[in-house]
Structure formats: C-alpha cells, structure tokens
Amino acid sequence: MKKAISEFFKMVLILLAGKFKKFTMRFKKTKTMKDYMMVYYSQAKSARLTGKKVAWITSGGPVEPLIAMDVIPVYPENHGAMIGASKMGGHLCELAENMGYSADLCSYARSDISCATINGGPIGGLPRPDMLVCCNNICGTVLKWYEIQARYFNVPLFILDTPFCHTEYTEEMGRYVRAQFDEYIVFLEKACGRKFDFDKLKEVGHLSHQGQLLWQAVLDTATHKPSPMSAFDAFYHLALIVTLRGTQDVLDYYTWLAGYMKDRIARGIGAVPNEKYRLLWDNIPIWHRTRWLSEKFASHNACLVADTYTTAWCGALKYIDENNFIDSAAEAHARIYLNIGVDQMAKMVIEMIDKYDVDGFVLHSNRSCKPYSFGQLDIQKIVERERGIPCLMLEADMTDERSFSESQISTRIDAYMEIIKERKNKK
Amino acid sequence: MLTAGIDIGSITAKAAIVEDGKILGTKVIFTGYNAEAAGKSVYEDVLRENALYKSAIKKIVSTGYGRNSVKFADKTFTEIMCHAAGAYHLDKKVRSIIDIGGQDSKAIILDGDGKVKNFVMNDKCAAGTGRFLEVMARALEVDLDEFGAISLKSKKPSKISSLCTVFAESEVISLIAKGEKRQDIIAGIHESIAARVASMSARLGLSEPVMITGGVARNSGVVKALEKKLSMKIEVSPYAQVNGAIGAAFLAASL
Fold this sequence. Notes:
The structure holds two protein chains of two kinds.
Chain A: H1 2-16, H2 30-45, H3 47-50, E1 54-57, H4 64-68, E2 72-74, H5 76-85, H6 89-98, H7 107-118, E3 131-135, H8 141-153, E4 157-160, H9 171-192, H10 198-220, H11 231-237, H12 239-243, H13 248-266, E5 277-282, H14 290-299, E6 302-307, H15 308-311, H16 325-334, H17 342-356, E7 360-366, H18 370-373, H19 376-387, E8 391-396, H20 406-426
Parallel strand pairs in A: 1-2, 1-3, 3-4, 5-6, 5-7, 7-8
Chain B: E1 2-8, E2 12-19, E3 22-30, H1 35-49, E4 57-63, E5 75-76, H2 79-90, E6 96-100, E7 105-110, E8 116-121, H3 130-140, H4 147-151, H5 165-177, H6 182-202, E9 210-213, H7 220-230, E10 234-236, H8 243-253
Parallel strand pairs in B: 1-4, 4-5, 6-9, 9-10
Antiparallel strand pairs in B: 1-2, 2-3, 6-7, 7-8
C-alpha cells in the first residue's frame, strides 16, 4: 500500500514537472488535455486505494463493456507512445533484450514487458492489472505479449479473436465475433463478481459513438487550406479518444477542440505558418522524433495535414449502430484499418488523398509494426498509379530511437521535398 | 558564367567548376574528420589547379552528406538532385541512374526533362556500398583500384550469402582459408553488391538507358555484375565519382 501511495505521488510530480511537454503543442489551453490525462492516470494508479479494478487492453479492443462495469481501462500502447515521446524506449527495449526478447519484437511490447519488471518509464510504470483484454484486430504480437503479462501478473486474460477481412466480412465472421462478445461479458461478470449492466453499456456505447463522431469532426477541419492543425497535433490530441472512449470527458474536450480549430480557420491561422505543400502520413508516429519531423517538414513549408493512424479511431464509424452497440461492435472491431486487405487499405488512403487534397504521401516503414508496414510498398504503388503523387518511404521505429538515422532521414526528406516543389511549381 | 559544385561525401569530398555547360575542372580529396575544412580545401584546390580566383565564381551549390557544412555555398541540394542534373547533362537520354557512393547506394528515375520522378536509397546498412568494398579489399590485401580487373578473370565467382558487411567479411576470411581463388572471391563480392543494388532498384522499376555514377562506378567488376543481374546495359559516367559535384555546379548556373 505504501508503495502504491509513493508511486502515485511520484507520478503526479513527474506530470507536473511537465514531461508531457514532449508532445508538440502550439495551441492555447494545453492544460485541459494535461488535466484529463493526469486525472486519468492518477485514478488508474490509485485504483487499489479506491477499490476499483484495472484492465489492460489493446488499443483496438472493445473498451466500452469495461467502462460499463466501472473498470478502469489502461492501454500499454498509449504508455508505449509516452515512453517513446520521453525518449525512454531505447533503454527499455535494451532491458527487454537483456531478458532474452528479440530485437525484432515490437518496441511497444519490449518496453512494456521490461517496464513492468522495474516500474520504469515516464510515469513509473502502469498500475498493476486485475485482468487483461486482448483483441488481435491490430496485430498478432498482442496475443503472446498479453499471455506473457497474464503469466507475469497472474491475472485472467480474455482474447477476442477477429478474423482477418482479406476481401469481405462474411456472415460467419459476424456470428463468430459476436459470440465472443457474450463470452467477454461472462468473463467480466466473473472478474468483477457482479452481473453485467446492459443499460449502462447502452449509455457508454452512445458516448463512444458520439466521441468518435467528434474526433472525426476535429480531423475534418484539416481539409481547410491552410490546415488549422497538423498530423503532429492529431498525434497529441488522440490520447483522449484512445484512453477515455465511452466517457463524457471525450465529448467535452473534442467539442472544445473542434470549435477551437474552426476558430483558427475563421482567423486564417495555419498549423504551418506558410503552408504551401500538404502531405498525408501513414503508420504510427515516430514518437521520439515528432518535434524534429514537424520542424523538418515545416522548414519546407509542408504540413502533414492528415494521417491514416489517428483516423483509425473513427475509421469504423460506418459499421457502428449507436442504438445497438453490442451487435454492431463485432463488425466495427473486425473491419478496422489494420485488419483488412491491402486493396481496401489503398482505397481508404486514396479517399484521404482526395479529401485532404494532398501533394504527397509519406510512409513510415515501422520496424516494430509489421501489420501496418507489410503491404506499404503495394499501397505506395497503387497511390502512384491512381493519383500520380510522389511518395516517400522512411525507415524508423515508433518507440525504439536506436532505429532512427537522422542524416539519412534528413536527406530523404530534403530530396523528396525538392521533387514535390518541382512538381507543384510545374503545374 | 562560372559556377562551382561541392559534394561532401562520407569518404571523399569533390569539387567541380563549370562554365556555360562545359566542365572546366574537378578535384577529389578525402573528407576526413572535418567536413567543413574538407569543403574549403577541395574548393581552394580546384580553383588553384584551374588558375581561378574566388571572385570569378558566380554561384556555388553544395551537396552530399556534408552539404550543410559548406558555409560559403549559395544553396544546397540533395545528392539525388545533383546526380540527376550531372547525368542528364552528360546524356539527355538517360532515364535511370544508379549511384553507389561510400555509405549509400541509390536509384533515381528521371523524366524526359531530366527532372527526378522517384528515388530509393539503401536502408541503414553498409552492404551494397563503397564501404563494403573497402572492408573487403582490406581483408583480401588487394588495392581497391585493382578489384575490377582482377574480378574479370574469374570463371566461377564465389558465393557470398551474408547480407551484412561484418558477417560477409568473416565469410570472405573463411573462403580465403578454404583456398578459394582471390579473383573468384572478388567476383563473388561484386555479385553480392549487384544483387543488393538490383533488388533495391527493382522497387522503382528502372527504365533504360541506365547510367551508373558514384565512386564505385569506376569498378568494372561491379558494373559487369550489375548488368548481368539487371539484364540491362549500363552506361558508366566518365565523371562517375565527381558526377554529384558536376550536377551541383550545373544547378548553381540555374540559380
């Protein structure tokens, strides 16, 4: 108990010390975001004191049933992003490698596994879980990663298996995934020791749907020229839709944020002061280099206006029936961006290219994230064929800063921008 | 109008002076530890050897990894643009360029006007670069300049399967211990580089005519292995090593 209290205060101090400044942020009222995240992590870290249960869950997993049962969801992937942004990934990955894990394993997994053993990282580790919820719609690595953590913490693990939707989503797939939601509810009833609250789920499902709509509205503001926000801002503001999806907080914050962006549009303020070139980003951010990359592109008057990554948190909206959350959740979770075939991914990318009217497509070939990075070359070729815009592939890693070579990336970006400028000036 | 191009690479620093579309002179020195000093001295050398004063040069463009350390340059361009400009100036028909330098290799596709359409560079790995050859030359105790000629004598190139420079060096050492002929080992090394560069270029889809530039273009063994691997004829730039600097000087003329 003593340890939990001291950890809690340590974390509050660290947060106050401004560790979160690492996320680039140019807009006013940054406190709000920090406040939400601080309260969220404080509540999660003090769950043992307040008698609440904590569940670790994958970013693409169904979080709404947890919130309906008053369980605090915690996201090792969000924690991984914080570790990356704090430039602590290389060290934690090295520790995992010392434990025997391969350097080819995802850096979120490596840093989470090693961090759990030392309570390290920017917030002194995540709170101990009471249960784990793993959905393999984002990748296959999470299966073994969560099994390892379930053994380490000796807590129950629920796995939601979503078949890969190569070309279509069949009725059989629907039934298969839907049936697992019933098992999920039984699992939660057992883990929490009480009956599931379906009325509450209805309410949470509604809030989750509203939150995703608002997040979409925020991202949509980037269609304006100049764009009031960049993908780097989206990477920062994303934290709430990931961690607090299904709560009123998300609605409050994104309502303010959408209004704030609209106000910037009205006043003609762009994220990049002299926006001349608009680009689309693919894959998870290079968390340890967001500021450097943001400044690098801005120095060429280029704004990364949108990205496939933050769009994923509103990408399955069309499958969600807010009045029938649980039945529609099966399809919405199975048909997310990372669980569909390359042709469909390319189609979504092309839709974004048209929607945001971009001049180029920048792909982060992420050493950690195999499902996101496999197929990128095909997507690049489809984009080049269909839209004829220049594409750039950057090799790096989302969290492990040892996989980043500044001078090589710098030359690639400079050369790419030379091509973009020449093309645009020709028009 | 006289213009200059300075290309600071990882191993060598190059300078070129051009006047109204003609190449007046070039110079190559080792970059060494201080890229800024190398840029200065290679520029002074090329001026002295061509009996020119600094004031005669109207514009200077710098390129290469050390492009930002050339403080007296009017503008910087990446080596991708400069190699394209250099190759296009030598042969307007060129549509693809393979450039193999000291620490990177790249493939560039040009459009009909000599503008860069697309490019690809090697990842964080020295295999398939000039540095790889330097390491091998040391292990084999052969002067790098003789590599090309020796390898052309080979009838049965050795198989180098390792994709990493360090492991390939151990592999070469074990081939030496096995008593394989030097020419076969060298030819095997060239085939290994060619395989690496060819698969990278295949991502872009090369179109002919293809020109090879960069220091490694001087090695006829690598060129031959690449031609075999790509099933394409490759034109060797007569200014292979200084092509980037020449391109920079031409770009300076259009500033």
